[in-house]
Specification:
binds dinuclear copper ion; about 350 residues; five-stranded mixed β-sheet; alpha+beta; Immunoglobulin-like; about 40% helix
């Protein structure tokens, strides 16, 4: 008895640390327990149902076990053998039928949801089609119906079904927006996975890569911004408008030679690296450096501060990413950051 208590006492600090770690999951809502759309609500419903059944089973089994332990304990001097119930038909039927009924209660809605949520909207004209490509360590969002491509921030209208087709450009990642829908993996080898969700309430929802994909996996965040239909149309128009280049010809030249060889802004530049159109009203730089002037967030700054930090040393910010250190002076970096931070779509 003494020994066992010692083990428990030693484990207590470990358990406390684990509880703390599990509860300290950042300032943004990464919880599936606070659903913000019909798909997430349905999934949350299944969680509630299964947890209720499990709690019921645990409570009943423990209550019976404790009752039996006390009621039928061996009393001092009692040498009799209790009634033997092995092979008792009545008891065996009871403990076979009850779990069977519970499994049916759990199984029917689960299977219904699994097939319901697998519905394919990829050919639906009324759904907003978004092709998601995961890269180490950023997200590409392609809107084929609108001829628009962006990165890191998925803008969606609140009044439509969003149909996702997800693939990867390199290793396995997992696309996950906890408050809107479950996750889907992006598998190497040309495989495409589909899902859909809706976000009827306008707002910003945090997305995460949920599959260990390299040293910067933990920084592979993205945002989903749900806006009303008119804002969405304005955003699309802004994305398609001709790009405005830096007014200083020297900076424009540097920007073209150092950045646009890979990145795109509006109709100019490369297409395979994160699109930078409308950087000025993005919520984050590099997907996870939150743009804020709130001094509470010590590691982050305004969009300008974050851009300067990122361009100066991308490997320091997000180790292992594919952006090379650019050949620019601090002054030139600041000028390019200033230009990018002023590019707003105002949607
Ligand atoms: Cu991509 Cu983890």
């Amino acid at each position: 008895m003494m020994n066992r208590w010692h083990v428990v006492k030693r484990l207590l600090p470990l358990l406390a640390v684990m509880a703390l770690l599990l509860s300290a999951c950042g300032r943004e809502d990464l919880s599936t327990l606070n659903p913000q759309g019909p798909v997430a609500e349905e999934q949350f419903g299944l969680m509630k149902l299964s947890i209720s059944i499990m709690v019921l089973v645990v409570v009943v089994v423990f209550a019976i076990a404790i009752y039996v332990l006390i009621r039928f304990r061996r009393r001092p001097g009692d040498k009799t053998i209790p009634v033997q119930v092995e092979g008792n038909h009545k008891l065996e039927i009871i403990w076979t039928v009850i779990p069977l009924v519970l499994l049916v209660i759990l199984g029917v809605p689960t299977i219904q949801s699994v097939f319901g949520l697998a519905k394919d909207y990829s050919k639906d004209e009324n759904a907003v089609q978004i092709k998601v490509t995961a890269h180490q360590y950023w997200w590409e969002f392609d809107y084929p119906q609108y001829g628009v491509k962006t990165a890191q921030e998925m803008i969606i209208p609140t009044n439509a079904v969003i149909s996702i087709e997800a693939k990867t450009a390199d290793v396995i990642h997992s696309f996950w927006i906890p408050s809107l829908a479950g996750k889907i993996d992006t598998n190497p080898g040309g495989n495409v996975n589909r899902m859909y969700f809706e976000a009827p309430k306008s707002g910003v929802y945090l997305g995460k890569c949920a599959e260990l994909c390299g040293p910067s996996h933990a920084y592979m965040d993205f945002k989903v911004k749900a806006v009303d239909e008119a804002s969405f149309e304005r955003w699309v128009a802004g994305m398609k408008a001709p790009a405005e280049m830096p007014s200083d010809p020297e900076i424009a030249e540097l920007f073209a030679s150092q950045c646009l060889t890979c990145h795109a802004v509006g109709d100019k530049g490369g297409t395979i690296y994160p699109n930078l159109t409308g950087m000025g009203d993005r919520l984050a730089v590099a997907g996870f450096l939150i743009n804020t002037d709130d001094p509470q967030y010590k590691n982050e700054g305004t969009v300008y501060d974050n851009l300067v930090r990122w361009i100066a040393d991308p490997q320091e910010v997000k180790p292992g990413n594919n952006m090379p250190k650019v050949d620019l002076t601090q002054q030139e970096i600041e000028a390019i950051a200033k230009y990018l931070s002023e590019q707003k779509l105002d949607y």
